[in-house]
Design brief:
The protein is of the alpha/beta class. It contains 8 helices and 7 strands; from the N terminus they run αβαβαββαβαβαβαα. It has a single domain (45-236), classed as Rossmann fold, CATH 3.40.50.450. It is globular, with a radius of gyration of 20 Å.
Amino acid sequence: MDNEKLPKLANPAYEIPSREAWRLFGIMAEFVDGTERLAGIRPAVSMFGSSRAAPESKVYSLAERTARLLSDAGFAVISGGGPGVMEAANKGAFFGRAPAVGLNIDLPREQRANPYQDLSLRFKHFFARKVMFVKFATAYVVLPGGFGTLDELFEALTLVQTRKTRKMPIILMQSEFWDGLLDWFRAQLVGAGTIDAQDLELLQLVEEPQQAVDAIFAFYEKRGFEPSPAEREVLLNL
């Protein structure tokens, strides 16, 4: 065989595809580990909000009280595992009946894991982590936050709207933060026909922790928390 035809592995042009191929095994490992470790925590609620919320802030207190009520009602609470609202959510659940779960992410500026996690997972890849938030959620509770919070919110809305995941409550807390965005949805998105008016019904706006808990129970009152066979198939292909 002509040796000149063999790829020269020391050449960066060949190393990059090779690294990409091996990287797939790391991605697969995150999906396998996450699926196996989270399989037993249902029903669960994924909570989101700003990592910058200070412990003395209104939104931190709101998240902590909401998570405690959810945990005492039997819901595991899943957060991103970091500070701010993530910490408040885990803290509320940690001292409640059901588990506090943190899906931590490796970032260029290392994320500090909060200490209130009964079950802690670590991810390198945002997309694997995002699947876990949706796949094991009975509901989403979203508090004021930044780009990351909005990213998770829009991900859930898109997946539910397109029926790539099962329908579930998507609850926004603290109306003074969300009212402007919802007004923009109505004026611009519905007005331009880029979404249907009924798509806005996927969102519920509440102020108090008990209202969030009640909204989740009301949604599942007639059907129970377990996914139906059809929903299991959808979640399998998420």
